[in-house]
Amino acid sequence: MKRGADDEGPHRPSVDMTAAGNRARGGLYGLAAAALFGISLPLTKLLLPESGPLLIAGLLYLGAGIGLLCFELRVYRHSKVARGEAPIQPTDRWLLAGIVVAGGILGPVLMLWGLQRLSAVASSLLLNLEAPLTIALAILFFREHLDRREVLGALVIKGQLPSSITTQEPCARIGWDSSR
């Protein structure tokens, strides 16, 4: 029996391996980002007594901006991915300004003010709420849909904070004075 060009044979994968590879690579990048961010919090806590939260937040984001600019100029600008991206439109300016103010100014400063007043461990535990709150915002405002795997991941992340507060009074456990 002769096979036609449209027949699937053993030499043709039935699963798009490129998409699976991209998902795996995206997961690894996400884990690496989480690990690096997790490492940065205790290290930043060491700098807070010498400098204020505003200075440290500014330096962190200045360093990130310089690093991303170098990456843009040397690698990204000439890639296939960059050529396929849509440029920022004038209608996107207010949204982009809101993202910069919330995520690039207020978020880091508030995080460092909290880190200055709490232990690094307590701050890390509170930062675990970032993922569930981001998921909730995506569902409420952007009508995102979660599949079973994503719901399971969200539940695992959400379960970390309550499971870490076990026998002691919760406020004392994370460094808050409950008598105030």
What this model shows, in words?
This protein has 180 residues and is mostly helical. The chain has eight helices and no strands. Helix 1 (17-47) packs antiparallel against helix 5 and helix 2 crosses helix 4. The longest helix has 31 residues, at 17-47. The termini are far apart. Residues 1-10, 164-168 and 176-180 have low confidence and may be disordered.
Separation of the first and last Cα atoms: 83 Å
How does the major sheet shape up?
none
Give the tally of β-strands.
0
Whole-number radius of gyration? 22 Å
What's the shape?
Answer: globular
Number of helices, counting only DSSP H or I runs of 4 residues or more: 8
Mean pLDDT: 77
Question: What share of residues is helical?
Answer: 55-70%
Show unreliable segments: 1-10, 164-168, 176-180
Structural class: mainly alpha
Relative strand content: under 5%
Order of helices and strands: HHHHHHHH
Question: Which structural traits does this protein have?
Answer:
about 180 residues, disordered N terminus, mainly alpha, disordered C terminus
Briefly summarize what is shown.
The chain has 180 residues and is mostly helical. 69% of the residues lie in helices and 0% in strands.
How are the secondary structure elements laid out?
Layout: H1 17-47, H2 53-74, H3 80-84, H4 93-117, H5 120-127, H6 130-142, H7 148-164, H8 170-173
